[in-house]
Structures are given as C-alpha cells and as structure tokens.
C-alpha cells in the first residue's frame, strides 16, 4: 500500500494535525507574537532532533533511498542556520529547555531509531508531509508571519516530500498505521503547545 493512502485511512487525525487552530491563527494574524516565538524555539529544537534521527536513518537506508535522505539532511543543516538567523532578529534563546511536547517528540524519534528501515522511512515521510500540508493550510499567512509560511511551503520542499514518499513506497514492507497515528498525534500536540503559549 502506498504511504499516501494513510491520509485517507486516518482522515480525522490528519485534519487535526494539518488544520489546527494555531495554523488558522498564523494565517489570520490572531496568534500572539510571544506564542509564535515559543513555537519557533521549540521547533528549532525539534529540527535538531530530526537531524540526528535522519542521519542515523541514512546510514542504514538502502542505496536507492540515500539521495533523498542526504538531500534532506543538507536542508536540515541549512534550516538550523535559518533558525539561528531568526532567533537573532527576534531576540530568541534557542537554548531554552524543551517543553513537554518537544521532549515527547524527541523520545518518539529515539524509539523510531530502533524501527526497521521501512517503518523509519514511513515515519520521516509522515513528519514532513504533515509539516508541508499544515503550513500549506496557513497560506498566505498574516503579514507578520508570511515569510515563515512561505519558507515552509516552497516547491522544493514539496518535491522533497514526494521523494520521501517514493523512497518509502519503494523499500516496501507493511505500512504501520500505529506509527502514523502516533506521529500525527505528536504533531497535533506540538501545535497544542503553541496554542497553550498563547
């Protein structure tokens, strides 16, 4: 089964993660700057955790999946540099402690390190597809947040997510509905955390 079919099989959970009130507030300009900044700092921590997960996945992935994974790693390194630039502009402390949702997501990624390669690839696709669809739902974004929304909806990112789907489908193995549901719940909790900061 193609991984994309998971979106229909778990449509309600998917909508909860990709049409979240936080994203609507970013689109409409209703999210307070402090809440957005809290989310931004936590997301930088998440990206650092994802970089470690993806680097280990690349080391054990089959040859056909390596190019897309390596390209994603380069993009994550660039993303961390971009977060540092944003933090300097917005006077944010990227060393702030992980909030519970961020720590829980990091623990989930650590558990997925022990998963077989097909499951780990499916997990990475789920994470990135959720992110792409979520920020696409926030388009065009309120003026204060528009550059962020545009940053996470560029065509290159969509192409990367499509490449992950191809890699996950090509490697085969059974699709893990439980992992999909757990990751989508983790994404939803991350948005909830941001709303809590509001």
UniProtKB/TrEMBL annotation:
The lineage of its organism: Bacteria, Bacillati, Actinomycetota, Actinomycetes, Geodermatophilales. Substrate binds at residues 43, 79, 128. Belongs to the TenA family. InterPro entries: Haem_Oase-like_multi-hlx, TenA_E, Thiaminase-2/PQQC, Thiamine_Salvage_TenA. This is Aminopyrimidine aminohydrolase. Catalyzes an amino-pyrimidine hydrolysis reaction at the C5' of the pyrimidine moiety of thiamine compounds, a reaction that is part of a thiamine salvage pathway. Thus, catalyzes the conversion of 4-amino-5-aminomethyl-2-methylpyrimidine to 4-amino-5-hydroxymethyl-2-methylpyrimidine (HMP). GO terms for biological process: thiamine biosynthetic process; thiamine diphosphate biosynthetic process. It comes from Modestobacter versicolor. SUPFAM superfamilies: Heme oxygenase-like (SSF48613). Pathway: Cofactor biosynthesis; thiamine diphosphate biosynthesis. The active site is at 187 (proton donor).
